[in-house]
Amino acid sequence: MSSPKTIRWGILATGGIAVTFTKDLLVDPTTRGVKHIKHTVVAAASSSSKSRAESFLKDVGAPSEAKAYGSYEELVKDPNIDIIYIATPHSHHYQNAMLCLEAGKNVLCEKAFTVNAAQARALADRAKEKGLFLMEAVWTRYFPLSVYVREQITSGRIGPVARVFADNSMATNPEEAWKDGKHRMVNPELAGGALLDLGIYSLTWVFQTLYHTQPESARKPPKVLAALKNYGATQDADETTTVVLSFPRSEELGGDAHAIATTSIRIATTPGGNTDAPGIRIQGPKGEIQVFPPAFRPTKTKIIGKDGSVEEKEWPQPGPGEGSGWYNGFGGGKNAEGEGHGMFWEADEAASALVEGRKEGKYEGLEESIVIMEVMDEVRRQGGLTYPEKIETTKYPTQL
Ligand SMILES: NC(=O)c1ccc[n+]([C@@H]2O[C@H](COP(=O)([O-])OP(=O)(O)OC[C@H]3O[C@@H](n4cnc5c(N)ncnc54)[C@H](OP(=O)(O)O)[C@@H]3O)[C@@H](O)[C@H]2O)c1
């Protein structure tokens, strides 16, 4: 077998998810059975200072020769970088991703991909013109659990999916947690709100089960009906949003299918941190697939057949393992010793695409990211939620 190809990453931003992603990225891929690629980090940039990038590289355990930059503009000029991972707030994704593409860099960009569909389209067009790889970092799609769920659907196990319920809600007290209203979850200047941050996962489950599993030529955008409640303190950021979707589908493939995608920053999918009720239910005439919370990092599935049969599966995340002294997690959370967070799967896919010369991810291409952004645009239109022009614009460069 040929030796693994090493992909050289640059990390743009040094906040919470950049740390989690980069720690996962540096885990030996053979711990998850991946042998054809390896990852390394050759540089990181902070928009605030070079020293912040230096401490980031130290915290995540990057190779000592990795370079620290005090601006994103310097990072994109580094000739040793194969691909840049963007981990700024979504308000900044369009400007940051365009900066990378203009500099000739491949891009893996955090969710939500952009603020609106026009920005996503402009990025996709530029990547195509430049022959560069571009992918939205919806990590959950790349989990073996998600691959399994999609395979159960395409194999016909529950029959044509007729209805999906998908919730991703996070029980916070926003007035307490984000008192000054400046946090990216509630700040309109940073495209705050439940829909773009959390609702994207509810829509991910709807799309990966009702849209992605259809033959490419049969995929059609859904009709959308939305209810959106704004967060009182900062107004132009949604607190709770509910979306009813109707996917047109030929009679031969099962006829139209429905979905309800819900999200909230105030109430929980299951209160008290319990994970015993399914946040995702995928229903067909022959049975139902259930996925247990959290929707973004699930580790349990259950398939209930029409005959009453029940099949449960656990999907623990691999990693360096117990006794390694290595830990990862996000925010206040800490996973068990040696347990990866699960962000390496999307990194493996991006790296594999570079090796194979593909320009898009195989489990969510740019066309699908754009359709999902169109749905979120329509939800915001019906709910009357707009963000400041400087973060909605496709004008590049725009100073943020
Ligand atoms: N996949 C997941 O599980 C997951 C989880 C959480 C978040 N996310 C996504 O990742 C992105 C970042 O989230 P996060 O939780 O990491 O946020 P964060 O902790 O606030 O970090 C964001 C980073 O972006 C940079 N930045 C540049 N301009 C900024 C500005 N005007 N305001 C704030 N930060 C700015 C900063 O890094 P520098 O100073 O170094 O430039 C900052 O540390 C969001 O799009 C979010 O949706 C994904």
Draw up the topology in text.
Layout (H helix, E strand, L loop, with lengths): L4 E8 L3 H10 L11 E9 L4 H11 L6 E3 L2 H4 L7 E4 L3 H13 L3 E5 L6 H14 L3 E4 L6 H11 L8 E7 L4 H4 L16 H17 L12 E8 L7 E10 L9 E8 L15 E5 L2 E5 L8 E6 L4 E5 L29 H13 L9 H18 L5 H4 L8
Parallel strand pairs: 1-2, 1-4, 2-3, 4-5, 5-6, 7-10
Antiparallel strand pairs: 7-11, 8-9, 9-10, 11-12, 12-13, 13-14
Helix pairs in contact: 4-5, 5-10
Give structural notes:
The protein has 400 residues and is an alpha/beta fold. It has 11 helices and 14 strands. Helix 5 packs antiparallel against helix 10. The radius of gyration is 20 Å and the shape is globular. The model has no long low-confidence stretch (mean pLDDT 97). NADP nicotinamide-adenine-dinucleotide phosphate binds next to helix 1 and helix 4. The site of NADP nicotinamide-adenine-dinucleotide phosphate has 23 residues, from helix 1 and helix 4.
State the domain count.
2
Number of continuous helical runs:
11
H-E order: EHEHEHEHEHEHEHHEEEEEEEHHH
Determine the strand fraction and express it as a percent band. 15-25%
Please state how the strands of the largest beta sheet are arranged side by side.
8-9-10-7-11-12-13-14
GO molecular function: D-xylose 1-dehydrogenase (NADP+) activity; nucleotide binding
InterPro entries: Gfo/Idh/MocA-like_OxRdtase_N, Gfo/Idh/MocA_domain, GFO_IDH_MocA-like_dom, NAD(P)-bd_dom_sf
Family: Belongs to the Gfo/Idh/MocA family.
Pfam families: GFO_IDH_MocA, GFO_IDH_MocA_C3
